[in-house]
Amino acid sequence: MSQSWSKKRFYILVLVVCITGASQGLLIPLLTTLLEEQGVSPDVNGLSATALYVGILIASPLSASLVGRYGYKKMVLFGLFITTLAVALLPFFSGIWEWSVLRFIVGIGDSLLHYATQLWITTTALESERGKRISQYGFAYGLGFGMGPLGLNLLVFGENAPLWTMLGLLVVTLCLALQLQEEASPVTDQQRESKATKHQVATVYRVGLVALCPALLYGFLEAALAGNFPVIGLREGISKSWISVLISAFVWGSLVFQIPLGILGDKIGRKRLLMAVCSIGAVGMFLIPFLMSNVWALFIAFSLIGGMIGSIFSMGLAFLADLLPARHLPTANVIASVHFSLGSMLGPYLGGLSIKVWGGHVLFYLIAGALASFVLLALTYRSAVVAEPSLPVQEKQIG
User: Fold this and answer.
1) What does pTM read for this prediction?
2) How far is CA 344 from the centre of its chain?
3) If one looks up domain 7-395 in CATH, what number appears?
4) CB 3.0-4.6 Å disulfide test: which of 163, 176, 341, 352 passes with 42?
5) pLDDT in tens, 189-207
6) How far apart are CA 333 and CA 392, in angstroms?
């Protein structure tokens, strides 16, 4: 029995993604700011920020089997529960190691619920609307992630005020998620038999390498900006309130363009669109260091750059669904989650190290170089096309 499309379920799922995105958007800059004020060095601070993504990385390979065994709904609820529990414990601790452990637990919860929601939406959306639905999913996550840093403004009411506010939102979301209904087994018998064999993983990489890279890139730039920009901003004399607004501006820009870009990708091809937005993003990131003295210029730049490259994760997922047959999508989603986790782990640490050794401006050159490298890869790599099982795999250029 196949899953049917349900608007009610879709709206609940995007709400779940929105609130958990807000938890990530808040926790990364909030704890980074508090640790900076405690005198923790930028590289160690960045390393602590990666704990959340280590949790995502470790949980990602388990996600497919857990969703296949227990179903989408149970994994969404379990992921929400342990995320909520970790956030509830954060106000009772203040040390870097305790916060790192709780960040790790949040990462596990986020990994499970994001995998389940991504796959649930991807496999049930109508093919003609896939790009739009996945872009709406990305919009919801971006909306939450963009709202999260604004919680820094609640620090005037106490160090734990942002955390208690986030806890309340998570509890409400958990109650709403209980209304989800599991209509069918989320994994077909054929997918259970294959269980992401080495051959299947190799096929996914051979066919979808270009589509998998945006997850790595987005994880890198998102975590680097959220985890390192508070340090750069404080050292440049930018206020905490402006730091929160600037981090959010990057995400707000992506929200404006998220759905239009998703629809545009349906029409002109997602590979071409990814190359175009990453080229623009690389130029924009290279120019950011020259605008540091003017917060309004930074606000405009972050909004425009975010508008261009803030959608690359959802574009990559839609591109994967274009390239791969349905039987490979569970494996492809796991690999995309691992890529996102790896990028998110590298971003704060390499960013913190660059701040310590060369200064904060190098972070933006690093991101620009990564985006330019992807464009070169997309120009030169020839993706294979997976034919039906009875037919051989054919090689051709994907546009």
Assistant:
1) 0.68
2) 8
3) 1.20.1250.20
4) 352
5) 444 444 545 667 888 888 8
6) 24
